[in-house]
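Protein in question reproduced for absentees:

***
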Amino acid sequence: MTGKNYEAWDVKESDYPADGPMEERLKFLLRYAILAPSGPNTQPWKFAIHDSGISVFADINRALPFVDPSNRTLFMSVGCAIANLAVAAKHFGFAPSISYFPDGQESDLVASVQLSPGQKPMDGQDDLFPQIQRRHTTKDRYENATIANHLLKEMERNINLPGLYLTYLADEDAKNRMADLVSRAHQIQLAKKEFRQNLGEWLRSNWTAEPDGMPLYTFGVPDVISLGFPAAFKEFDLSRPVIYRDSGLIHDCSTLAVITSDQDDKQTWTMCGFVLENLLLRATSYDIRASFFSQPIGVSLLREELKKQVNRGHPQLIFSLGMAKPMRPSPRRPIEDVIVRH
């Protein structure tokens, strides 16, 4: 990888300052937290380091008012970063304890993560840390391969917080229904100029020097086309090629999955992100990749349709799982940009 906007991925485990001050050790853990996924790579998190832990904040300045008006995806993204932080903390010998919204859900303080001395995992134990730098989202295409049932059950083990559920939808009928839902959601959303403008601000050319947003190589867009695509996306309704791409990611995957919940609030969204990232890291250990389809959940009538299909609480996220070739990850903001004094 080249460019300063990709340097975050070059973090080395061997550089951990084991004998350094606590602040330096905790800052090193955050180098792994910021490698979490976020939609659409807005990286909406901030951190404050304390003597014995880290405060995790939502960066509401990075919200998408027309794409994600409730900030559901934003808080799920912060939950993914908390998951990476907890996985890295355990790997380096801490015992993390997470308190969600200690100041209430109206506060930007999403979680207080206390880090006490713990036991470093032994070789061969359940340590997802090696997968943090290997994990990436697939937005292009899947290979023709089926995920074994025992691996699906292993991944489901990570949906282990109360009130959260995972449902797999693997048959062709379910895929057809989901492709139809996603297609109708795209048609509704991409017909709105303010939606396209809001999302288009986060599309990047393949040569981007920006530390955030979605480079179009992740979608399989050639270099030359990527130069003019963000401007074209904002101006024109490009729902047809978007629907075509997502239909392939749905029909060619091994299985679809839906995370649902009993509650539907900021804490629930954050916890969804936490379990999701743990599932994605587990999937990565089996070379399984995911692609996400939150569009129907952003359209209230279509979310109700999905709710009836799954029949298990509030739908929070749709994603596909399958085998896919590794690809270059997306850029990241430097660690200094996300640490605040608080």
